[in-house]
């Protein structure tokens, strides 16, 4: 199903892209590539600002509390004698915490990055898509580093899908938590509480389901959520710098002699 969704939205995005750009000129291609590098650099800069570091420091107490209760919470959902999960949520409820469902709003945002006819909306979701990519890359780097160093903080909880004879160190951070926390933060800042609150509640739901399903410890989903919020806030800060106020419009026009010009409108 996931591959089908990827194929479907990829086709839609390409069709939307062809609707937006009448010709793919070298200039447009250079601008697109340049934006990727410039936006990536600026997102990285924002990630290191005092505001973003405050977000990280704010999650430290929750991480430490989570570490304290990790094993106790795990014992509520895992039967150590039979190596089975216990007290599990209904299967249909668990399905809403899978990538197949989580990816739907993300692919819609990616479609807007190419298919929306409003240039500013396209830029907003292009930065969203780029920030999401870097959040995902950071998750992979951290997971591989923790696994290579075999740090206890990365140990996954015991789960029927894992052999209890082996230790698995790819538990931190939770990729599901990063994805949905990033989406909730970016859309909340961009669209307001109408999007931020529902996606924020969904983030809490995902965190709970990952812990209840013995996929992660509490501290690991807290870490993923913190990283998602940090990347989401940093990405939106980049868009905020280039966004025009809603009452200002800029358009490219031609005069009677077919000379190209720019018109600027202000809605009082």
Features:
268 residues, mainly alpha, two-stranded antiparallel sheet, 4 strands, 7% strand, disordered N terminus
Walk me through what this model shows:
- Helices cover 69% and strands 7% of the residues.
- The chain has a two-stranded antiparallel sheet. Strands 3-4 form a two-stranded antiparallel ribbon.
- The protein is built from nine helices and four strands; from the N terminus they run H-H-H-E-E-H-H-H-H-H-H-E-E.
- The protein has one domain.
- The chain has 268 residues and is mainly alpha-helical.
- The longest helix is centred in the middle third of the chain and has 31 residues, at 119-149.
Rounded mean pLDDT is 81
The general outline is: globular
Poorly predicted segments: 3-25, 247-253
Give, in spatial order, the strands making up the sheet with the most strands: 1-2
Q: What is the percentage of strand-forming residues?
A: 5-15%
State the major sheet. Answer: 2 strands, antiparallel
Number of domains: 1
Give the termini distance in whole angstroms. Answer: 49 Å
Rg estimate, integer Å:
22 Å
Proportion of helical residues: 55-70%
Number of extended strands: 4
Provide the structure class.
mainly alpha
Number of helices: 9
Order of helices and strands: HHHEEHHHHHHEE
């Amino acid at each position: 199903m996931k591959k089908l969704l990827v194929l479907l939205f990829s086709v839609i995005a390409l069709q939307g892209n062809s609707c937006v750009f009448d010709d793919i000129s070298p200039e447009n291609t250079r601008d697109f590539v340049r934006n990727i590098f410039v936006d990536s650099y600026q997102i990285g800069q924002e990630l290191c600002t005092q505001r973003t570091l405050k977000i990280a420091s704010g999650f430290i107490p929750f991480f430490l509390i989570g570490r304290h209760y990790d094993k106790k919470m795990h014992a509520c959902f895992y039967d150590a004698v039979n190596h089975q999960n216990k007290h599990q949520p209904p299967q249909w409820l668990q399905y809403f915490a899978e990538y197949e469902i989580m990816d739907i709003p993300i692919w819609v945002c990616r479609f807007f990055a190419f298919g929306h006819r409003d240039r500013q909306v396209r830029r907003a979701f292009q930065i969203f898509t780029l920030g999401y990519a870097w959040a995902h890359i950071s998750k992979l780097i951290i997971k591989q580093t923790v696994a290579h160093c075999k740090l206890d903080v990365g140990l996954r909880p015991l789960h029927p899908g894992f052999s209890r004879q082996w230790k698995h160190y790819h538990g931190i951070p939770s990729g599901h938590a990063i994805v949905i926390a990033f989406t909730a933060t970016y859309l909340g800042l961009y669209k307001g509480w109408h999007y931020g609150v529902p996606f924020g509640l969904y983030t809490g739901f995902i965190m709970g389901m990952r812990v209840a399903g013995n996929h992660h410890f509490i501290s690991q989903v807290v870490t993923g959520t913190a990283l998602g919020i940090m990347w989401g806030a940093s990405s939106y800060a980049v868009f905020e710098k280039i966004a025009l106020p809603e009452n200002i419009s800029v358009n490219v026009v031609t005069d009677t002699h077919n000379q190209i010009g720019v018109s600027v409108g202000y809605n009082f």
